[in-house]
# Entry
Amino acid sequence: QQPVQSPQAVILREGEDAVINCSSSKALYSVHWYRQKHGEAPVFLMILLKGGEQKGHDKISASFNEKKQQSSLYLTASQLSYSGTYFCGTGNFGNEKLTFGTGTRLTIIP
Amino acid sequence: KAGVTQTPRYLIKTRGQQVTLSCSPISGHRSVSWYQQTPGQGLQFLFEYFSETQRNKGNFPGRFSGRQFSNSRSEMNVSTLELGDSALYLCASSLLAGGMYEQYFGPGTRLTVT
# Structure
């Protein structure tokens, strides 16, 4: 079953923070996060594994909550370049068979 | 380093025809996976190849097939095309080494079936 992402869409001003959630009805083992800009291919952001808690780089980080079967992506002090659609992909670590979330469209305005 | 390349970038085919798409991964990446993206269904996993073997397969009919060559380049084939096969087909190559994982997508092939 497809993971559910929330919110579906969000508009923020530059400098504001955003949280995107990815909830699965099945046990989570690994979660991939991607950003896709309109007309472009997805870009891999990071992967989180069962047993791990949080990771990130620069102002983008993510957490993995095994009990809640949920992962959250955090974007702090958002920049215009953060605009795009964010997808989570869930699966088992070590293979690429992912089930993708419904997507969250993030728009950053000046 | 050179990115993932896909050819052709755009394709228009007629129902009933077949099509072959090609993907060249990043040098050193042995895993190549294919995805279909449509406005209605979103991103869906098709299959993954690793060292010339299909390692995983998604829930697509047998009309969708693929293969990987010894140089890691991969092709996917769709036979007896249907209108619903119109989509952006993405391939991605990945590497897992020393506890580090990286994955890169190609620009995609936009297939239109008329």
In short: Chain A has a mean pLDDT of 90. Chain A touches chain B at residues 2, 32, 40-44, 47, 87, 89, 94-100, 102-103 (CB under 8 Å). The first strand of chain A starts at residue 4 and ends at 6. The CA atoms of residues 62 and 96 of chain A lie 20 Å apart.
